[in-house]
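Before we proceed, please read the two lines closing this message. Report back on whether the structure tokens fit the sequence:
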Amino acid sequence: MEFFSKQPNIDFMGLRFVAFGLTVLLIVASLVSIALRGVNWGLDFTGGALVELHYEAPADLDAIRATLAADGFGEALVQNFGSVRDVLIRVAPQEGVTSAATSDRILQLLPGAEMRRVEFVGPQVGAELADRAVIALLCSFGAVLLYVMLRFESRLALAAIVASLHDAIITAGLLSISGLSFDITAVAGLLTVVGYSLNDTIVVFDRIRENFRKHRKLTASQVVNASVNETLSRTVMTSLCAFITVFALLIWGGETIRTFAFTLAAGIVVGTFSSIYVAAPLAILLGVNRSLLMPVAREAVDSRP
């Protein structure tokens, strides 16, 4: 099944330096946002109590915030959860106060609300989760580097790992700008984005290797351009189908998976861009050529005695 009626012939590599400029701009903007705004660390990492309440009528969030602030919960995060009648309250941990006591106090302050869910994460558990999240991301990048080196060549491996880092940084920057809660589902989303982007990059690299062996007179830019065009139909269909599914989750999936869905939606767009305008052009800049991708010729074995 093809997305285009005939194979496109777009000069992607002709715009690679413009794309590099855009890439640098996006990375800088993401790093600046993370450095200045930070990320909205979720309960998984900061610790604290999360209380879900249900009201019979639409809840007045401003009144709830004012009530909690007057009783010492000034840093409480109050937001709707799926509907205007459901409210999610997240409060920072208080020394010597259990989650049961916190939830009971909130119920006393907000009469008429029905308790639906209570979760509590201690600060030590949150710190351990943060450390494990960093280790998981580093291990994923290391696995990407090793896999591509074994399957292709070191220059392509470097291009793939840079593209994966590009995707993770920009997606994290978008999470910072959006203000969505950065919880363990965001880490899962980032790991999924790295895998998705790598899969797309591998498809392009496979075609680049085939075309280098097939077309001996074409330049590296021409080979890469032809390879991207030949895989473009597959790339568009895969990315479009995945994005539509994730976008539906983002709109109708509810607050529980909103961060995960947003991370995937942003990562699909960024990963598709990077497979075309980061990994492939970077391979050219690193000097990938036909001789590096040719199979190693085996020496003939003399069968004479």
Q: What stands out?
A: The chain has ten helices and six strands. Residues 299-303 have pLDDT under 50 and may be disordered. The longest strand covers residues 114-121.
